[in-house]
Amino acid sequence: MLEFLITAAKGLDELLIDEIATLCPEAKLKSKPGQVIMFAGIEDAYRVCLWSRLANRVLLKLSEGDVKSADDLYKIADQVNWPTHFGLKQTFVVDFNGTNQQINNTQFGALKIKDAIVDQFAVFFDSRPSVQKIAPDIRVHARLWRDKLTVYLDMSGRSLHQRHYRNKTGLAPIKEHIACAMLIRSGWTKNQQLPLLDPMCGAGTIVIEAALMAANIAPGLKRDNWGFSHWQQHEDGIWQSLLNEAKQQISTPQKLIYANDLDQGVLALAKENAHQADVYHYIHFSHQDVNNFKIDELSPGYIVSNPPYGERLSDTAQLFPLFKQWGSWLKQQFKNWHVSLLTSNRELLRQMKLTAKKEYQLMNGKLECQLVNFVLDEANCQERETKLIQNDFVNRLTKNLARSTKWLKSQNTDCYRLYDADLPEYNVAIDCYADWLVVQEYAAPKNVPEQVAKKRLHEIVAALPQVTKVDPDHIVLKVREQQKGKNQYQKVAQTKQTIEVYENGARFKVNLKDYLDTGLFLDHRITRQLVQQKAKGKNVLNLFAYTGSVSVHAALGGAKSVTTVDMSNTYIEWAKENFALNKLKGAYHFEQADCLTWLKRHQQKYDLIFIDPPSFSNSKRMDATWDVQRDYLDLIKDAINCLNTKGYIFFSNNLRQFKLDEQAIQALGLSVTNLTQQTIPEDFQRNPKIHHCWLLTKEN
């Protein structure tokens, strides 16, 4: 009797042992997390390879031992008589999993096993077999658990979930063995006389696996290359007998299986995959909107689907109302049906207002998911009143919105900050731009698990439309991390979609989706007003101008001339568009240049200079790196050379730890007025270090 290790995805242990017990009733089985140990003959191992719909790999145990040093890896592998398993002309590869205190590198572990194998061949034959990582003839698995190493021969070769009918996939594909687990957990496999429907079928994996089940087609029947194909001890007679037996057991399903998708391209892909699996004629394909989809002639059956989860933040807000609408449609058109849905975003399914009957944890690849079962009985089909989610975030957001509504009456703007990580566990900033919201998720601290952070973000997205009454399509989500150099204004999308906003008599074009920043720094609202108030009749220079918002305010304030300088051509063109939007024409000049070198060479004099440099930059367009704390004094010296007597420099930056050397500034002939507290708007008071700002005046 041989010992085999049969592996599976997390969450399939219970299903896998039941499946193997049915396939191999004489085998002795033990279950462990993610695996089943089977004591059986070679025929049972072949049968699992051919018929298992849930397993990943079937591994034959060859040797085992304790590991106290690196040399033990070699010794344990050398216990195997390798020439009895494969020959010199065959290729092999070693996969090594696991580490401990002695062995902390899997590549090193694999190398020691490989050395033991080739050295043994060298002793016996004075020659060595070749290692080949891609499509080797023989695959050896070494698994280290604590101080125990076990060496296996891979009977399956490639993972068993690869059925060889899926040449292409759509977005977020579901693995074949997970699809089978969903079908089993849904209850349909015990009621195959009832209809099965996947209304968002994607590449068709669920319906194809269902058709293979219904037609009793062995999932491994189309595979032509196995881990045991080149194994010296392979018993081909037994294998051919199992193949012939499997072909004879194919039957015709009693009921059609239904597949639907809104995307015609991905539906064509599903049809192609179904043809490859020889089950196309068992599946009825349709192209409809899921929120209008219905099959009038069908009796109640099972809906099993893998709907979109909104893994990308930008998708999440738009999916919430769609799931709410879909929930209502299911209640109207699919009464008494069973529904099983896979998701990594449980909040999405809660929008459907259905009470779950059962939930299962599954891993789809590296993604933690839940399979949620519902029964559309009379109680579940009652339309429920949408109740506002109540949690700490909702309460705080409601208070902020009420306070902002009062405060805005005294302001002249439609863009402001509504929420700024007021509650540490809900670590986002929320900015309003007209009738849009931009939600910036700050990178979660390392001590907050990724799933916890994601759950809180989903709570935020679910609450925003209800509290603010903003259309979910107008909610933009971004992840914000500290940016440096050329990444400071990096693109994150390519929509080129802009909207107009207003602020204190000025209008600006903002792009809420394509960049981490939108084109308007809201925390400088008061600073721009101060520039406007001082600009009348003056020649104004705006350095590091970004999209020229300060230049626009200076021009609206009656500046005699305005010169706008930025290194990015994109932002210079954007600044020109902002001037055109405000119908500004006159002595307005735009320069695309490295501000540092441009200023050193520039000879013209100005009455007011606005400088708001980045904290750090190493752009290829610059002659050297820029560090604001290190280099600001040299910058101000160069600015003084272009400043008229009694002229002003507004100097600002957003480096939280920045320190201004007032004595050094005064030694340059400038008086210093700290405007930081004065220039931080009420909606940014929670973050008093959002920027620093000083007014530097040239006395003579």
Descriptive overview:
The chain is of the alpha/beta class and 700 residues long. The chain has four domains: 2-154, VC0802-like, CATH 3.30.2130; 176-216 and 251-375, Vaccinia Virus protein VP39 (Rossmann fold, 3-Layer(aba) Sandwich); 392-481, RNA methyltransferase domain (HRMD) like (Transcription Regulator spoIIAA); 521-698, 3-Layer(aba) Sandwich (Rossmann fold). The chain is 31% helix and 25% strand. The chain has 19 helices and 29 strands. Helix 2 (42-51) packs across helix 7 and helix 11 (392-408) packs across helix 12. The longest helix has 21 residues, at 313-333. It is globular, with a radius of gyration of 33 Å. Residues 44-155 form the THUMP domain. Pfam families: Methyltrans_SAM, RlmL_1st, THUMP, UPF0020. Its main location: cytoplasm.
